[in-house]
Amino acid sequence: MDRRIFLKVTAVTGTSATLASCGNPEHAIIRFIPEEEHVPGVAEWKPSLCPLCQAGCGVIVRVMEGDAEVVRNGQAGVMRMGLAKKLEGNPAHPISQGKLCGRGQAAIQIAYHPDRITQPLKRTGPRGQGQFQPVTWDAAIAELVAQLDGLVTSNNQRGLAFLKGGGRGQRDDLVSQFLDRFGAPPAVSFDLFNYDVLRRANLLSFGREQLPTFDLARSGYVVSFGADFLGTWNSPVAQHAGYGQMRQGRRGVRGAFVQVEPRMSQTGANADEWVPARPGTEGVLALGLAHVLLSARLRPADAAGRAGALIDGWNAGLTGYTPADVEKQTGVAAARIERMARALVEQPPGVAMIGGAPLAQTNGLFAALAVNALNALLGNVGQPGGVSFMPQIPATVTPRRSSPPERRTLQAVTAAILAADPSPVQVLLVDSTNPVFASPSGWRTREALLKVPFIASFGSFIDETSVLSDLILPDHAFLESWVEGRPESGAAVPVATLAPPALRPLHQTRATPDVLLQVASRLNKPLDFPWQTFDEMLMAAFATLPAPSADTDAWTAAQQQGGWWGAADAAGQTRPGGPAAQAEPAGRTTQAGGTNQGGRPDAAPVRALEAQFDGEPAAYPFHFLPYASHAFLDGSLAHLPWLQELPDAMTTAMWSSWAEINPQTASKLGIAEGDVLEITSTQGSLRTPALLSPGIAPDVIAMPVGQGHETFTRYASGRGQNPIKILASAAEPETGALAWAATRVRVTRIGPPNGDLILFAGEMREHPHEHEHER
Amino acid sequence: MAHRWGMAVDLDRCTGCEACVTACRAENNIPTVGPDQAAAGRAMHWIRVERYWEGDFPDARLTFRPVLCQQCDAAPCEPVCPTYASHHTEEGLNAQVYNRCIGTRYCANACPYNVRFFNFFNPQWDRPLQLQLNPDVSVREVGVMEKCTFCVQRINAAEIQATADEKPQKDGDLKTACAQSCPATALVFGDLNDPESAVSRLSRSPRGSQLLGDLGTQPKITYLARQSQT
Amino acid sequence: MSRASRARILRTLVGCTLLLAVAGTSACRPANNRASMASVYTPARETVGEAVNDFFGIRPRVTQPFPFPHSTHVAKKVACTDYCHESVTKGPVAGLPSVKTCMICHESIATDRPLIQQITDLSKRGVDLSWQRVYGYSAQAHVRFNHAPHLRAKVECSTCHGRIDQQTVAERNVDMKMGYCVDCHKAKGASNECLTCHF
């Protein structure tokens, strides 16, 4: 009886026949005494923090009592405990404002994932084979301590490297301090879709090395250059709240919105106008808009201040950027450019934003500076309806490092490991990042990591990177941990999110910050931290913040409401763009952007750079545009079954990879929907089903990032294709950020549909295979 | 006065983000069926975001529309049910009573909105994912039909709470999971019998219309059209 | 009808008959006392016997892990809602007490009794009693019962649970079929809409 027939039989009787268990003596299960009391059947809401992206939405967790299988003191049993049932946005939190995106809501599955690492593991087989055996925490920590002591003995403290995701908070400060005290170089952070270029541009233009906050609720005309601000970019939940207001929240005013991008994103689908400009020409288009404003004398050039002065030819009126010139480069009609520029001033406040692919070009920094200059020219910086920078928590929360941070990219580190023998990195610690999956093949990340003698990782899952570890020290799920974060955008007031554990740990895991502190204290030469545990560190940091009222202190209040945030201003305005959020207006900032912070001398005007693409147009006729998946972002969420089965907004695809292609291009190449394509770059090729979309330029092939995992739980492993693997290693030269949109490809049809593309929409057939059979 | 629960969906606010889809799954114990069953058209989403493409490149345009049970006042699903599993409540909800359902699937065939989902198999959760299940909502078994309930567990709980507190319910206190989660506030849930409720006001909008309203199903969900820039 | 689907129906019918034949011989363990270490959670009954029992409404007798004397406690003026089932007034679930609750009183009361010493010992080892539910509904009944509003409506505990105050271990005194609920709802003017209880 095969599985299918078996299921059908049991389906009819409503029975899963585990006959073998009948007649067995009663299974004796141990029931542990509950560690805390809950009112059964009644929900309690506890604050926490969504860990999935840098937006840092405060959440509330619906906790109800239930029976869970747990291990206590080495014994398995059942215990009544508080269990998380649902995540919602924290209504008091200035960023999430009671809302939460679909990804954030699915984060609850991290805690209950069947493939979570439940106890420390030590490698037994060859590297990368995934053979591990459980060890005790004492043994695991002792092993890591021995490795670090070894570095001290050989006076090679700089042989320790720490690789992490791009977080901002006390946890990251703890890592920095650990490395600083140990004598190791600063942590290397790696995120495929990072914001390095944008932060650098904002530092240069406005003196704020920070993500921008948009006051969409009061905007009149928004031009977005590739920023998926209603999907995956910056602070999507806060931006959604503003967007809803912008469209229908004001009597008689409906804000307009134009999206500039060659492949219509979910955000672009909402735009009033979709402008498929040529990839890599976004900066030119922004300057084209500025040219119209300058030449029509709608705004004076010096209004843009320093942000304008950074652009070569700005004060001369950007003579090379007439609508006709810009049309030639961007493919956007001159009349349209003219109209958009005028709308920016005629439907005030006008604002521009840039994110995603335009910044992932070799000229990404130029594009960002051009958009910054346009905003400065429009005079919307720090103004209602414009762009602003969220005030940050006073620096006392962040103890200053003894030396200025040196920046190292992962690419530089892997190159150094591969170049030298023995490897300059002897001990590598990995936390919350998966570069083996998310870096291009040209970086040879896996090869480099295999050269490192000892790797320990902290994550909750075995992925392509942690499978290479010698030791795995599994972290608590975020719901089981103290969580803290300092978001850099999305609100008008400073925010430090904080919450105690919402749940008791389900498994034999330990919070990574606590493990680091334990390791620090057990070294032969202990690193003198003033705290035993992470919550002591948090308490010390929050003690420096002003108390919200006379009868409580910041630490206590923050635990109750899920964080500390500055007061709203007198008008009760807590939305972005209120006076509290005003950044230094452009042109008046002089102190920042100097050599030591920006790594770039002041005031050297930037020339327009043409974007460089990997691959000759003749051999590789298409631009290849990978994009952050709506469900999985950079692939770090592909292990959550709710997100695998979430129909993609644009295509309704589930559990799949696909490549989007313009229907006219497809018909020229003889490609039909679902056909298997081979996509080839100079770096390699992959095969994936075709999805015909009218929302993509004829010379662009787009593919969502996220699938194609080799090792990442039962739900993601071996599913779909990973487009990162065929990306060239091109970089934005100033920041070294990967230019992930700078690869060209060719496309060949390989064969008819193979069933890999699963769509929710379309035919509602019940038995597709049988229908095929009857034909 | 009895309540009459309804919803307004502002398509000018909806961005297709699908926060509602996950919220519904979390709240209502909706199982994932896995890739094989999903390929066979058996994925379950009590609320889904439909998309409508118009035009060709470069003038392509796409509109999102969240579609859930329209809670029709003249519901085609109800008269076809031989066991009264699908029936109309006094508050106007299209109820689906699982323990009456014998799985004829007539209701799903009759429904013009394709919002009813049949359990072809017993749902499964890989342990310990089942610890997330909402104890306030049934886990449905093989052979029964299921669909959006307007979060009746929340409606009932609010009613019980209001009786206990001896206070009438306030508009906006009670939200379905989808409306609660909607970051752009495109979904608004409330009492249509209260003329001052947000949902009543929105339902009177000149932009409002009902999905397939000309079929005479009398849906209690009003869609407010997306506006365009002129 | 296609040949394939006819074959499918035939297969399932045969399978059905076979399973029902097996079912008659295999009624076994009570439903709520299993070590559920299976890797998958599903609403399916674990055994055919359970399915058959559910179908005919047969409830297996439960064996409690400890001979708790309800009568003694009630006689000593401990009200049901004092400690052991205190959440009954707060929400849907009456709750079953943990050993911790026993120890609130028995830290100092009747500490010389062997049974109390057993409890004290459990408490010291951090082990709880696995109380078996006496009432409750099968999952397929899809009933969401909420105690608190019934108490507010002045329904006595004994209306549904009988004279537990005269019993030692709790037994199922009242056969709670749907008619039992419906009759009372009718008499009290409470809603008999299906969705009141089934959702």
Summarize the structure.
The complex is a heterotrimer of chains A (about 775), B (about 230) and C (about 200). Chain B has about 230 residues and is of the alpha+beta class.
Characterise the protein shown here.
The complex is a heterotrimer of chains A (775), B (230) and C (199). Chain A has 24 helices and 28 strands. With 775 residues, chain A is an alpha/beta fold. In chain A, the strands form 7 sheets. In chain A, strands 6-5-17-16-15-7-8 form a 7-stranded mixed β-sheet, with helices on one face. In chain A, a hairpin with an 8-residue loop joins strand 5 and strand 6. In chain A, helix 9 runs parallel beside helix 13. Chain A is globular and about 75 Å long. In chain B, strand 2 and strand 3 form a beta hairpin. The longest helix of chain B is centred in the last third of the chain and has 14 residues. In chain B, the strands form 4 sheets. Chain B has a 4-stranded mixed β-sheet with strand order 9-1-11-10. A two-stranded antiparallel ribbon of chain B has the order 2-3. By secondary structure, chain B is of the alpha+beta class. Chain B contains 6 helices and 11 strands. The radius of gyration of chain B is 18 Å and the shape is globular. In chain B, 55% of the residues are buried. Chain C is an all-alpha fold and 199 residues long. In chain C, 41% of the residues lie in helices and 1% in strands. In chain C, helix 1 packs across helix 2 and helix 4 packs across helix 5. Chain C is globular. Chains in contact: A-B, A-C, B-C. Chains A and B meet through helix 1, strand 3, strand 4, helix 2 and helix 7 of A and helix 1, helix 2, strand 2, strand 3 and helix 5 of B. Strand 7 of chain B pairs antiparallel with strand 1 of chain C.
Number of strands of chain C: 1
Secondary-structure element sequence of chain B?
A: EHHEEEEHEEEHHEHEE
Main beta sheet strand tally, sense and closure of chain B: 4 strands, mixed
Shape of chain B: globular
Shape of chain C: globular
Q: What is the mean pLDDT of chain B?
A: 95
Cα separation of the termini of chain C? 35 Å
Span of the ends, CA to CA of chain B: 44 Å
Largest interface pair: A-B, 87 and 69 residues
Oligomer state equals heterotrimer
Indicate the structural class of chain C. mainly alpha
Q: Taking strands numbered 1, 2, ... along the chain, how are they ordered across the largest sheet of chain B? A: 9-1-11-10
N-to-C SSE series of chain C? HEHHHHHHHH
Number of helices of chain C: 9
